[in-house]
Model the fold of this input.
Amino acid sequence: MSRHHRRAITGFTLVELLVVLAILGLLAGLVGPRILGQLGGAKSKTAAVQIKDLEQASELFKLDVGRFPNNEEGLEALVTRPGSVGGWKGPYLKKATIPKDPWGNPYHYESPGKRGDIDIYSLGADNGPGGEDENADVGNWQ
Done:
């Protein structure tokens, strides 16, 4: 075998493999946090969409019954007839269940609300009042 032919079939050197791994590590370090940041923001946006759906269902409840569900009835009144309420034509949600927020916690409901007729909100990833970014509260007042 000629010297040129032997070199063509040897493959990659260890140095070449290490350079490629270093480049891939740099790319993952730069791109990874941005992608994860976008995924986090998606949960807040999902919560906002679900809250709008719950608010619209509450409006339909009010049109039929003449009032919003009270605090005792809560959001459950949108899928299950509360007691002997007249005019109820539910369930008012497409799926006959109240969704949990994207972090697995129940949505909070207040009637009358502090910021409007009703307040529907999630306390965010930390499930505590206030916070920033993914820990921030998401509600129908925003």
Remarks:
- The CA atoms of residues 3 and 23 lie 31 Å apart.
